[in-house]
Amino acid sequence: MSFEIVTFGDPILRARANPVVRVTSETKHLVDGMMEAMHAAEGIGLAAQQVARTVSVCVIDIPPELDVEEEGGPPLNPGIAMPLVMFNPKILSKGAAMTRRDEGCLSFPGIHSAVQRAVEVEVAFVDWKGELKTLRCRGLLARAVQHELDHLDGVLLVDRISPVKKISMAGKLKRLREETEERLHEKKTAPGQKL
User: How large is the greatest C-alpha to C-alpha distance in the chain, in angstroms?
Assistant: First the structure.
């Protein structure tokens, strides 16, 4: 079963994630739904808050052709199998090199902006077997890890863009917030619901 992706304006996107105590069948159902929603929206990453859950899990699936520095170059993250499911992820270190690249977000449909991120990060997380894993990620994977971990902390794309860009996007952001708030209000006042 797929989940609906939450958009900007829903307060759950600002909630900090609660740790996953253990991986259960319910957790597996959540991850399966997140994967389905991410792929249906043609995304490469999704955090639990984006499907209205406040648990510390994110999924990432970088296509092999995007895991390169330049066209035809070698993979940046050989040996890291996709899709990647991370429970309770935490960035241990960031490389000194930074890059500003265009970034989008499934919770901000149609909105992209340049965001500065570390080119390389080391991330620790718990895998499906409950084992602690550590990965060194580069390129787009490192960017995706940083983006999804921001979500788990309640930090959004809009928080990472420049003030000038935020001003130029003010109309789009306002419309998106209003549409989201209207949908939330409709859900609360649906037939059979108490006001």
Answer: 58
- The residues carrying an active-site annotation are 148
**pLDDT, tens digit, for every residue of 63-104?**
999 999 877 789 999 999 999 999 999 999 999 999 999 999
Peptide bond connecting 83 to the previous residue in cis, omega within 30 degrees of 0: yes
* Domain extent listing, the chain: 11-188
Q: What is the CA radius of gyration of the chain?
A: 17
Say if residues 120 and 109 touch (Cβ distance below 8 Å). no
Class of residue 68 by CB neighbours under 10 A (exposed 0-12, middle 13-18, buried 19+) = middle
pTM (2 d.p.): 0.91
Domain 11-188: CATH superfamily is: Peptide deformylase (3.90.45.10)
Residue 161, Cβ density class (10 Å: 0-12 exposed, 13-18 middle, ≥19 buried): buried
Distance CA 182, CA 134 (A): 42
